[in-house]
Design brief:
The protein is of the alpha+beta class and 532 residues long. It has 14 helices and 21 strands. The strands form 4 sheets. Strands 9, 10, 11, 12, 13, 14, 15, 16 and 17 form a 9-stranded antiparallel sheet that branches.
Amino acid sequence: AKKTTSSRFLLLVVLLCLRKALIIMGFKVDVVAQEANLRTVTSLGEPKTMWEAFARLSAVPRPSGKEEDIRGFVRSVAEKKKLAFKEDAFGNVLIKVPGKGGPAVLIQGHLDMVTEKNSDVHHDFEEQGIQLAVQDGFLRSAKKTTLGADNGIGVATALALLEEPAFDHPPLELLFTLDEERGLVGARNLDSEGLGITARTLLNLDTEEWASIYCGCSGGGDSVFQYGVEREESSSSSSSLLKYYKVVVKGCTGGHSGVDIHRNRCNAIEALAGVCQVLLGEKGAKLVSLTGGDKRNAIPREAEAVVAVVENGDLGPFVAHYFETAVKPKFADTDPLAAVAVTEVVPNGSGPPPPPLTAECGAKLLGLLAKDITRGVVKFSEAIPGLVETSSNLASIKANDGGYEIVCSTRSSVTSELERVRDDLAAAVQSAGGKVTVRSEPYTGWNPNLHSKVLNLTKQKYASIVGVEPEIKAIHAGLECGLLIAKIAPDLDCVSFGPTIFDAHTPDERLQIDTVKPFFDLVKLVLNDLCD
C-alpha cells in the first residue's frame, strides 16, 4: 500500500513538473486531462496518430478569442518537426510541409472551440482542458461540456499527417485560423500574402456528416441591440407587498444556430418570454429581469427571469401546468427534456431584487423576445431541397448598465435576404424603443461548384472506401471557405468534409468513433492522388 501511495505521489509530482515546463515553453496544458486522454484513446485503435494528436490538443485550453495556448501548442509541433511556420498579425498560423511533388495543397481547420456547459457544471475553459470519455461508440467530454471535436478533429488530422508513416503527398500548407466560432474572425483577418500561401486547392476539415461532402455554405452577420428599461419607483405603495419568484427554463437541447436551426428545437429565451407574458396577463405579475443564452452561434438552452406578484400563493403549479400544456407539446419530439422551475426569491443580506419594470416596458420587452424578433427558419432553398436558405437565431439577452443587450445571428446564402431579415430585426427593436449598437459586416458565403476538380476527386475516393457515393451538399452555416476564396484567390478550388459529430455547440456534443478512420483515410487518399 505504501509503494502504491508513493508511486501515485511521484506521478503527481511529475505531472506538476511537466505542467510547469510546458508553461515555460509558452502554453498551458491541463496535464491531468492530457494523461487521462492518452489512456482513453489507446482503446480506439487506428488512426493512432490522429487520436493521440486529439488527446493532446484537447488538454490545451482554447476558448474563442483566447487561443494563445493552442497557438503555442501548434508552434511547438512545427518546431519539433523542424518545419517552417509563420503567424500573421492576427495570429493565424501556417505550417509548410515539404512534399514529393505537385502544386501545394492547403489543409485548414480552426483552433478555437465553443465553450458551453450546463449551469451546474464547474469548469474553467480558460484554465482546464477537456477530458475525454468513450460511451456507446461515441467520444464525448467526461464532464457535461462541449467536446471541441468542432474543429479539434480537423486540427488534429492536419497535425497527425506529420506523424504518419511515409506516404506520398504534395507540398502541404497547414492553415490554422483563430476565432471562427464568433464570426469567422480569423479568416476575415487572414494575411494570405504575409503567410506565403501559394496553394490553389483547399481541403477544409470542418463539416460534421461523414456521409456528406460539402461544396457550399451560407453567409451571415450578427446584430446587437440595446434595450433600455424603465423601472417603477422603489417607493411605490405596493412594493412592500410584492413577492419575487425566479422562473427558469432549462434542459433544452440547443444546438448549432445554423446546422440545427430547422430541427424545431426550443429556444429557451423565447419560451421563457412566453411564460412571463402569461404571468403578466393572467396573474398580474411584473417583470423584474430576464436573461438567457450565451454564444451567438448556439440556440439558447437555458434562460431565467425574476417576476414579482402582489397576490399570495405559489406560482409554481400554474407555471408548470402552462409549460406542460402550451409549450412542451410544440417540442415533444425535439426537446423532450425541456423543463421549467419556479422558486421564491427570499431577500438576503444584499437586499431585495430591483424594482420591476414598468408595465409598458415589460410588455414591450417580452413581446420582442416572444414574438417580434424573427427567429428560426425564414426560407428554404428552392434550388436544393431541404437546405435552409435564410434563418435567424435569437442568441442571447444579457443585463448591462443601460438595460439589456440582445444578440441575434442571421444566416443566408442570398445576401439581399440576409440584409432584409436584419432590417426587419432592427425595425422590430426600434419600434419597441430599442436601438442598434452593432451591425457586423456580413461574411461571404461559398457558392457551390459541382464541376470542382477536388470535389469530384474526393467524391471518387470516398466511394472507393465506403462502396457508395456520398451526398453532395451545401451547409447552412458559415464555413471559412468563402472568406478564404476572397482572401487567397478567386480560383481556389475547395471541398469540405469530416467525421460525424452530433449536437455541436452543446454539452451533448459527441464524435462518432467509427467514422474517424475512414475520414482520415480519405484525407490521405485525396492527398496521394494530388501528388505528381
